[in-house]
Specification:
single chain, alpha/beta, four-stranded antiparallel beta sheet, 26 helices, 29 strands, 44% helix, RNA-binding
Length: 877
RNA sequence: GGGGCCUUAGCUCAGUUGGUUUAGAGCACCUGCCUUACAAGCAGGGGGUCACAAGUUCGAGUCUUGUAGGCCCCACCA
């Protein structure tokens, strides 16, 4: 061991320089690249590929910090760690962005055509697509950059199409004219999962429809209640509940639909709720999924009134044609009012489905679409989660997953977009023949290719398997080990990856899934662009450092719980980094002039050394367990507590005696030990704080050119180093010192003033006395088993010792009495509890013997203390 | 309507299988310190009937049930 020469090491840790320096170093030395090595067990993570349209937000920071912690931890523990980065083409999101981008230049997607438009998409991707993934480097992620993938890479695209063809041939993909969620903004179908529901303060319009007899005479009126009055133009029936006495007589009669002027039947169906609205429902089969189903049950006509942008088509009366659906709404209501057919308008809040990307209300719409049949595909995927072959953390997500899988409907995978994987299907120009294959038909002039592309998730569902681009890699790295993701894409992505894994690989895609916390702002609101409450992670890194951010976010994010984040919380990490920096600085500065030798480690060892080693082993053990249990915040708390409290507050203070020793060998020995332990500490810390630990680790010794802590061996837990004896000895010293400091504090004795202390205790070793003297700032320490209490002194009783501090002139008798009385009261309070407990026959009889024993011991200890304190008190009187 | 999660100090949260004392940490607060690693620091201190109620148990912050409040997901009430 040979520490680097430090002429001017700064007083505070300065992250900026260290971060850029070491990331470059890691990349240049290719430390994070993984190749197949049959002698090593792989540990694989595929990154949740960020959208090429996305911006880096705090959620990415949490997500990628967690992945990096696991990858670095496993790498240091001897695994062949492989973290595959990449990006998602994000079909609908990107297409919207590019459309808007072109619009600004006065260009319309339809004018330039498919080929030209796709060129713009690729350009856009080349320009912006790598931003997030590059920004992640600032966070210190140890991805294998040689393996960076994109969901539209040639190989990957090929696999996406192969999957389609395969499922098509197995009749798990079909085409159908069905009602889908239609997004009028993007003019495309979207899946059920892409619809989100907003509570809207709307109205319920009550419309009167005339009932007519065979001769078209108006004999009555029925009132229907609707939230979308414009759809009445597509009504083809009116329905009531078969048990509704109010309307029984109307069933089978006809209603004359106003404005449209057509007669439509009154039918009865169980679906109708009698006590909602008026109990009469207008049926618009083309624009409502329930109505559509009812129409099929009753064989009712279906009239589509909309174009693909949800403007009205030729199926509505002339005056309403070619208008936006919300304009039509106003017009229809106005005309009803004119005709005296508007019964009333009431306020009504309901949930309206919105398109996630278009952010407009979706319209149920009938169209030709491609669907994936899910009922069979879901079965093995459900099973592997139930059996624990894929484990969810926290486990309660299993229920959500099961519920979705049990109620799954066929997946609409076609999108009327251009950016994405074009569906590999061709329609024959002069027959009904359909061709599906990777290669185009042999006589392309006779065929027309499907214009739709696939839902983005019908490509990213292969991410865990096809980011490995050859069979050998796939066999070695698949199944991957861990997936770290936000719970909001459990259906979109996690579930579908499991489905794909079971279907195409016949094995799970990953063994563990870590669902991250949802990051909210201080008021508990979601981070969002519109609220402007989402801090830019790069600004935080700039201000606090990447390590501080990584540590803080791990520290405050428990598994399975939302977390309230604010930038200034990063002080936790920054201050901790600084603390470590200064502890290192202290040791390094003192080691400058000393010759450190490994063989000195065993020399001049005392119980403080044994204690800190013992504590370190416990911390290491707790840390390993926490990582295994996916409790990263626990791991950070273990680190924080051990390093700050045990190592810095106590150990470094204890060994100052030896560090300042005139005996060079004593000094060298203690510094060798401390630095060696510190090195292990740095390794433990490295997965969370890679930059700081690399910076310090490089200072601790002369390293080889490409040597890095990131590929060094992680410390191994050694139970033999746990030393309860040493822990007790230090515990005693700590208790005595704390009691003395307490008196100093309460009596306002300045820290600079040395005091005399008398201890009534069995003889103490020289080293114990030294420790107590230096930490208590004691001039003369007298230890005697038969000590008489000195006059005018302040006292304390700890286990194994009575402590007296003569404070002539400084002591106020009344104050001192109050102090002692307070302590007696505290102890007596505790004694009441334990005495009661021990008097309880049931407790003594039924509780385990060791528990009872403990209680008894507590009781005698406290009784002793109280007795002594009472003596002290009576002396004061 | 179904399901999940949460409620512990002024604030943000720990508290693993029920059994170390009268429940911990950080921030904030009070007192004293620029003690030659660190004021982004050191030492000491105050502060909580663990949301409420009942139950199980020798023993409940921890398990069960109910009540109140908050958050989220799913579901076709027009």
């Amino acid at each position: 061991m040979h520490v680097k020469n430090l002429s001017d090491i700064p007083k505070a840790y300065e992250p900026k320089e260290a971060e850029s320096k070491w990331y470059k170093f890691w990349e240049e030395n290719n430390l994070f690249h993984s190749e197949i090595d049959e002698d090593e067990e792989p540990y694989t993570i595929v990154i949740p590929p960020p959208n090429i349209t996305g911006i880096l937000h705090i959620g990415h920071i949490l997500n990628n910090t967690i992945q990096d912690v696991y990858i670095r931890y496993k790498r240091m523990n001897g695994y062949n760690a492989c973290w595959v980065p990449g990006t998602d083409h994000a079909s609908i999101a990107t297409e919207s962005k590019v459309i808007n981008h072109l619009k600004e230049q006065g260009i319309n997607k339809w004018d330039i055509g498919r080929e030209e438009f796709l060129k713009h998409c690729h350009e856009w991707r080349n320009k912006y697509g790598g931003i997030i993934i590059n920004q992640l480097r600032k966070l210190g992620v140890s991805c294998d950059w040689e393996r960076e993938r994109f969901t539209m890479d040639e190989h990957y695209s090929q696999k996406v199409l192969e999957a389609f063809v395969d499922l098509y041939n197995n009749e798990k993909i079909y085409r159908g004219y069905r009602m889908v969620n239609w997004c009028p903004a993007t003019k495309s179908a979207i899946s059920d999962e892409e619809v989100f529901y907003k509570e809207v303060n709307g109205k319920l319009w009550h419309l009167k429809y005339p009932v007519v007899d065979e001769d078209d005479h108006i004999i009555d009126h029925v009132v229907v209640a609707t939230t979308r009055p414009e759809t009445m133009l597509g009504d083809t029936a009116v329905a009531v509940n078969p048990n509704d006495e109010r309307y029984k007589h109307l069933v089978g009669k006809k209603v004359l639909l106003p404005l449209a002027d057509r007669e439509i039947p009154v039918i009865s169906d169980d679906y109708v709720e009698m006590d909602f609205g008026t109990g009469v429902v207008k049926i618009t089969p083309a624009h409502d999924p329930n109505d559509y189903e009812m129409a099929q049950r009753h064989d009712i006509e279906i009239i589509n009134i909309y174009n693909d942008d949800s403007t009205t088509n030729g199926n509505v009366p002339h005056e309403f044609q070619s208008l936006d659906r919300f304009v039509v709404r106003k017009k229809v209501v106005a005309r009803f009012e004119e005709m005296g057919l508007l019964d009333k308008i009431t306020d009504y809040t309901n949930k309206v489905g919105y398109s996630q990307r278009g952010n407009v209300p979706i319209e149920p719409y009938l169209s030709e679409q491609w669907f994936m049949k899910m009922d069979e595909l879901v079965k093995p995927a459900l099973e592997v989660v139930r059996e624990g072959k894929v484990k969810f953390h926290p486990a309660h997500w299993i229920k959500t997953y099961e519920h979705w899988m049990d109620n799954i409907r066929d997946w609409c995978i076609s999108r009327q977009l251009w950016w994405g994987h074009r569906i590999p299907v061709w329609y024959h120009n002069s027959s009904d023949e359909v061709y599906c294959g990777i290669e185009p038909p042999k006589d392309p002039e006779n065929w027309t290719q499907e214009t739709d592309v696939l839902d983005t998730w019908a490509s990213s569902w292969l991410w865990a398997q096809d980011t490995f681009t050859n069979k050998e890699d796939q066999a070695y790295y698949y199944p991957t080990n861990l997936l770290v993701t936000a719970p909001d894409i459990i259906f979109f992505w996690v579930a579908r990856m499991i489905i794909a894994g079971m279907e195409f690989m016949n094995d799970v895609p990953f063994r563990d899934v870590y669902f991250t916390s949802m990051i909210r702002d201080e008021q508990g609101r979601k981070m969002s662009k519109s609220l402007g409450n989402s801090p830019d992670p790069l600004d935080i890194i700039d201000e606090y450092g990447a390590d501080a951010l990584r540590f803080t976010i791990s520290y405050i994010s428990p598994l399975g719980q939302d977390v309230l984040f604010s930038t200034d919380k990063c002080e936790i990490g920054r201050n901790f980094a600084n603390k470590i920096w200064n502890a290192a600085r202290f040791l390094l500065m003192n080691a400058q002039e000393v010759e450190l030798k490994d063989k000195l480690k065993e020399k001049h060892v005392d119980f403080a050394d044994k204690w800190i080693m013992s504590r370190f082993q416990s911390a290491l053990n707790d840390y390993n367990k926490a990582i295994d249990n996916f409790e990263l915040n626990t791991a950070t708390k273990v680190l924080y507590g051990f390093i700050w409290n045990d190592f810095c507050d106590w150990y470094l203070e204890l060994i100052k005696n030896q560090i300042y020793s005139d005996d060079q060998e004593v000094k060298a020995a203690v510094l060798t030990r401390a630095l060696s332990l510190f090195e292990d500490m740095l390794k433990m810390l490295h997965p969370f704080m890679p930059f700081l630990t690399e910076e310090l680790w490089q200072l601790f010794d002369e390293r080889k050119e490409n040597e890095s802590i990131s590929v060094s061996a992680f410390p191994k837990f050694d139970e033999l180093l746990i030393d309860k004896n040493a822990e007790e000895e230090i515990e005693f010293v700590k208790n005595v010192v704390t009691a003395i400091r307490n008196i100093r504090g309460e009596m306002n004795v300045p820290p600079s003033k040395a005091i005399n202390v008398f201890m009534k205790s069995k003889p103490l070793s020289e080293i114990q006395q030294k420790y107590i003297s230096s930490l208590g700032k004691i001039e003369n320490l007298t230890v005697d088993e038969n000590l008489e209490k000195p006059k005018a002194s302040s006292s304390a009783v700890v286990k194994g010792a009575d402590i007296f501090i003569p404070l002539e002139g400084l002591i106020d008798i009344e104050e001192e009495k109050a102090r002692v009385v307070k302590e007696i009261n505290r102890l007596e309070g505790m004694l009441v509890g334990v005495t009661k407990k021990l008097a309880n026959e049931n407790f003594v009889g039924r509780a385990p013997a060791d528990v009872v024993e403990k209680e008894k011991k507590k009781k005698t200890d406290w009784e002793n203390k109280v007795e002594k304190l009472k003596e002290i008190l009576s002396d004061l009187n």
